[in-house]
Write a sequence for this structure.
């Protein structure tokens, strides 16, 4: 069997790792992961043919070949290798998790830190038990800081990922109702997210960035050194507030406690992004980024990946937030639509996934809030919304929406498009 130390020696000579035979750059190392419907061991020889120098496998039936590195469990080996590399690299790591906003906060934090440092950060939402180790294995001697996003669907996952990341500091954006099928309750979500706090308590010099106005997080953070951010009057190290909205985009001002205000006009939609911005600014300033650099970085940031993304088409203005949806983020998005000044609003909302027994009640609440906004039209998509669609227009799926849009073309509207990724509403903007 190949040991971690032996594998790490080979990794230092071949520091590119892949889990996909279509991405076998010459000299890389292929990790033969298993899934519910596939077994990467079946493709190990193909990976070698495609250019990989080695393949890490856990099928004892594969032929003896010095390029096939046999281990007990490929996924655990990938995670152990990443943890080993992170320790050797040795630079500061910021770990970010939370129910909503963690990807946007990660992107903003990386943008602010990049004003002064060479930063490695999680690409997209590769924040799970596979994506996190793959991120850490991209660390090189050029990187001065790392920002690693971690997500979870079940208890214990943040603890597992924290053990791999070995962060110096951490940030939980918020805690809300999501993945209740896996967590069981809001309390289960809170316990899992704050596993990050538990991990940091075990690390020498570990500390957190804390939204001082979040009572749930503050109560779990007792005893942890914290850099605080929040609304003026809370005594935070970084404080900020929204400015009157004069465009589809959020404007705010922030300052260090007792310092001069910095005004920022962002490319973000949604007042709920205020806390995400303040979190990123707090991280940046702690690591020596100036307030002016932080303000410029936030103002320049352009959201992508269908997260709080404003766009104008030939006929309408859109707010596209179609990557993810849960009761907390749905309420925030609808609250934001209520604040926006536009004579003709429209909602296209996709169902929320992984809510378990809470699904019916949470979809009822969202449908009720949506229909109380007084919009020109409310379109609800997915079977979970069907019982609560009185007064709205219901669609079985995204394809049914496309069929109607082919005939009926909304015009002159501000349209919120939001739903879980599985509802595929991200396909709609080109039709609106």
């Amino acid at each position: 069997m190949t040991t971690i130390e032996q594998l790490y020696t080979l990794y230092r000579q071949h520091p590119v790792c892949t889990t996909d035979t279509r991405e076998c750059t010459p000299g890389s190392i292929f990790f033969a992961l298993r899934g519910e419907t596939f077994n990467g061991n079946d493709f190990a020889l193909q990976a070698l043919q495609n250019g990989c120098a080695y393949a890490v496998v856990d099928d004892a039936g594969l032929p003896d070949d010095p390029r096939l590195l046999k281990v007990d469990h490929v996924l655990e080996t990938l995670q152990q290798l990443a943890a080993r590399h992170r320790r050797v690299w040795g630079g500061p790591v910021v770990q970010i998790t939370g129910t909503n906003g963690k990807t946007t906060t990660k992107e903003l934090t990386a943008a602010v830190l990049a004003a002064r440092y060479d930063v490695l950060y999680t690409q997209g939402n590769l924040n799970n038990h596979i994506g996190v180790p793959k991120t850490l294995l991209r660390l090189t001697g050029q990187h001065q800081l790392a920002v690693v996003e971690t997500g979870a669907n079940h208890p214990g996952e943040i603890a597992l990922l924290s053990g791999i990341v070995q962060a110096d500091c951490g940030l939980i954006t918020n805690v809300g109702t999501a993945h209740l099928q896996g967590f069981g309750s809001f309390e289960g979500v809170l316990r899992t997210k704050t596993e990050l706090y538990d991990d940091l308590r075990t690390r020498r010099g570990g500390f957190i960035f804390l939204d001082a106005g979040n009572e749930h997080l503050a109560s779990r953070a007792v005893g942890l050194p914290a850099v605080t951010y929040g609304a003026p009057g809370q005594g935070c190290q970084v404080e900020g507030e929204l400015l009157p909205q004069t465009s589809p985009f959020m404007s705010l001002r922030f300052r260090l406690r007792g310092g001069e205000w910095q005004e920022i006009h962002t490319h973000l939609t949604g007042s709920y992004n205020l806390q995400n911005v303040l979190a990123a600014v707090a991280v940046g300033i702690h690591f020596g980024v100036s307030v002016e650099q932080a303000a410029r970085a936030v103002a320049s940031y352009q959201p992508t990946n269908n997260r709080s993304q404003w766009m104008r088409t030939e006929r309408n203005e859109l707010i596209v937030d179609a990557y993810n949806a849960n009761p907390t983020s749905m309420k925030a998005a609808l609250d934001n639509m209520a604040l926006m000044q536009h004579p003709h609003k429209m909602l296209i909302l996709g169902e929320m996934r992984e809510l378990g027994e809470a699904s019916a009640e949470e979809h009822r609440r969202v449908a009720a809030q949506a229909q109380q906004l007084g919009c020109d039209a409310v379109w609800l998509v997915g079977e979970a919304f069907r019982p609560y669609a009185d007064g709205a227009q219901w669609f079985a799926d995204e394809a049914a929406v496309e069929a109607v849009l082919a005939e009926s073309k909304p015009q002159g509207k501000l349209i919120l498009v939001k739903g879980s990724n599985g509802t595929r509403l991200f396909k709609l903007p080109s039709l609106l």
The chain has a mean pLDDT of 93. The longest helix spans residues 74-89.
